[in-house]
């Protein structure tokens, strides 16, 4: 039912002047991915980093790059990010023209290049809008804040949206990874892990901690414990229904 939870520290909260050592630190701390937040000042109000940065990052990171594109017209820049070495590419459903077949085109371009394809939805986008694509994605990213800035508070009820995505995938007979992004930390990791989240993005909770490696381990421990408890509850319910 559950995959081991992975932590994906968001380097938006890292020290840009010491990126190499921050990457080493999270790798040694057991991070599963480097989460890279690309913002264009248009799809979201903030402007962060782009293709040349991802290219440089690829040279030093030993764990996969999880590139979260918060940009308008992502199809235009997609090939550049693939060439730069992104291992997972996440596009926002809201940034694609569904009627023009852009979602299918994006997923095919990413997978055709041998990378993993993910779709993300903002907090106001219904989970059901992922239904036509759920079988064709490697991962779904559920935003638990409005995209644009690190350090925001987790939006209550996002865990229910994670459970909805898990149910949607199960119904379709597929098993994409489910990633949650925004306001993740010791207080919120358990909530979403119990609902089926596999990858937790954490910016502030990792890089704002006195010991980022210890923070990664602690968030992962809490998430794993919540998964175990959810499994025990599900087991108990099955027992009870058998009478
Ligand atoms: C928000 C970004 C997040 C953000 C996470 O738009 O997609 O990845 O940096 O930061 P925290 O964990 O601090 O909420
Ligand atoms: Zn992100």
Write a concise keyword list for the protein shown above.
single chain; 243 residues; alpha/beta; TIM Barrel; eight-stranded parallel beta sheet; 8 helices; 17% strand; binds D-xylitol-5-phosphate; binds zinc ion
The biggest beta sheet is recorded as:
8 strands, parallel
Protein structure class: alpha/beta
State the CATH class.
Alpha Beta
Alpha carbon gyration radius? 17 Å
CATH architecture: Alpha-Beta Barrel
Write down the secondary-structure element order: EHEHEHEHEEHEHEHH
The count of DSSP E runs of length 2 or more, i.e. the number of strands, is 8
Uncertain parts: none
Number of domains: 1
> CATH-wise, what's the superfamily?
Aldolase class I
Total DSSP helices: 8
| Average pLDDT number | 97
Ligand identities: D-xylitol-5-phosphate, zinc ion
Q: Helical percent range?
A: 40-55%
Order of strands across the main sheet: 1-8-7-6-5-4-3-2
Instruction: Using the alpha-carbon principal axes, give the shape.
Output: globular
- The CA-CA distance between the termini, in Å, is 23 Å
Strand content: 15-25%
């Amino acid at each position: 039912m559950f995959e081991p939870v992975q932590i994906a520290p968001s380097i938006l909260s890292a020290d840009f002047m010491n990126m190499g050592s921050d990457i080493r630190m999270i790798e040694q701390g057991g991070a599963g991915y480097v989460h890279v937040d690309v913002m264009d000042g248009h799809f979201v109000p903030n402007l962060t980093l782009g293709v040349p940065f991802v290219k440089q990052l690829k040279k030093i990171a030993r764990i996969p790059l999880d590139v979260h594109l918060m940009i308008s017209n992502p199809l235009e820049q997609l090939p550049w990010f693939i060439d730069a070495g992104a291992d997972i590419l996440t596009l926002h459903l809201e940034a694609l023209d569904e009627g023009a077949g852009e979602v299918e085109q994006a997923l095919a371009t990413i997978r055709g290049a041998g990378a993993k394809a993910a779709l993300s939805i903002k907090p106001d986008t219904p989970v059901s809008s992922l239904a036509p694509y759920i079988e064709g994605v490697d991962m779904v990213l559920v935003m638990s804040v409005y995209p644009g800035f690190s350090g925001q508070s987790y939006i209550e009820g996002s865990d229910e949206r994670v459970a909805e995505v898990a149910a949607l995938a199960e119904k379709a007979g597929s098993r994409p990874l489910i990633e949650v992004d925004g306001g993740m930390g010791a207080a919120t990791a358990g909530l979403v892990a119990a609902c089926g989240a596999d990858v937790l993005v954490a910016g502030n909770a990792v890089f704002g901690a006195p010991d980022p490696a210890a923070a990664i381990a602690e968030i992962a421990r809490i998430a794993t414990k919540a998964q175990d408890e959810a499994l025990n509850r599900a087991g108990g319910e099955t027992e009870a229904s058998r009478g």
